[in-house]
Automatic annotation (TrEMBL):
This is Lon N-terminal domain-containing protein. The lineage of its organism: Eukaryota, Sar, Alveolata, Dinophyceae, Peridiniales. InterPro entries: Lon_prtase_N_sf (IPR046336), PUA-like_sf (IPR015947).
Length: 202
C-alpha cells in the first residue's frame, strides 16, 4: 500500500514537505458533504497540524531500526521477512496494534546502529504468525534515509535493546552500495594481511 489521504483513503503522492501536499477540491467537497462540515474541519485541522509537526521533526521523524544482515531492500519492491528476535517481535506487535505506525527502517550500510548510517523505510503490508513463534511479514521498500540520531530502548524480557533512529530522507543516487562497502572492507583486510606477511618475511 502506498501513501493515501488520511480523510478519504484515496491514493496520494509521497511528498517531503507539507507545502507540497495538494488537495483535490472536488473530492474534498464530497468528503465534507459525506461526513459533515464540523467533523471534516476538525479532521482537516488535525491532519495539517500533524503535517506541520512532521515538517519540524523531519518527514519520517523517529522509526525503529532493524539490522537484517543484508542491505538488499529495493524501493517499491516487496520482500518477505521472518522475524524471531524478541526486540523485533515487540516492535512488530506495537506496529500492528490498532493505531500503530506500520513502518520501520532497515539498515543498508553500514550494518551498525550509528549516526550517518544509510537505511530504507519499509512499510508493513501483511503479517502472519509462524509455527516457530516468530512473525512472517511482507514489507514494501520505501525511500532511503540517513540516520541523524540513535536511541536505544531497553525492552522487557529482551536481551538486546531496540534501537530507534531520527531520519532524514536521501536521494536514491546518494545511497551507499552495501556490495561496494563489503568489497572495500575485504580489500582493506587483504592489504592488512599482506602487510603482516611482509613484516614476518623480512
Amino acid at each position: 500500500r502506498g501513501p493515501a489521504c488520511p480523510l478519504c483513503r484515496a491514493p496520494a503522492e509521497r511528498v517531503r514537505k507539507a507545502g507540497e501536499l495538494q488537495v483535490d477540491a472536488q473530492r474534498a467537497a464530497e468528503v465534507r458533504r459525506a461526513v459533515g462540515y464540523s467533523r471534516y474541519e476538525a479532521q482537516r485541522r488535525e491532519v495539517w497540524a500533524q503535517a506541520a509537526d512532521l515538517d519540524e521533526r523531519g518527514v519520517f521523524g523517529e522509526l525503529p531500526l532493524v539490522c537484517a544482515g543484508s542491505g538488499h531492500v529495493s524501493a517499491g519492491a516487496r520482500q518477505k521477512m521472518c522475524v524471531v528476535e524478541p526486540q523485533y517481535l515487540e516492535m512488530l506487535r506495537r506496529a500492528l496494534a490498532p493505531g500503530g505506525r506500520r513502518s520501520f527502517a532497515v539498515l543498508l550500510h553500514p550494518f551498525e546502529f550509528e549516526a550517518g548510517a544509510h537505511c530504507r523505510v519499509c512499510d508493513i503490508i501483511d503479517s502472519a504468525e509462524g509455527r516457530d513463534g516468530g512473525l512472517h511479514v511482507v514489507v514494501e521498500g520505501g525511500p532511503p534515509c540517513r540516520v541523524l540520531q540513535v536511541q536505544a530502548e531497553a525492552v522487557r524480557d529482551c536481551p538486546a535493546p531496540l534501537f530507534h533512529g531520527t531520519l532524514e530522507e536521501l536521494e536514491e543516487e546518494d545511497v551507499a552500495d552495501p556490495a561496494e562497502g563489503a568489497l572495500m572492507g575485504a580489500a582493506s583486510d587483504v592489504v592488512e594481511i599482506l602487510g603482516l606477511l611482509g613484516r614476518h618475511l623480512r
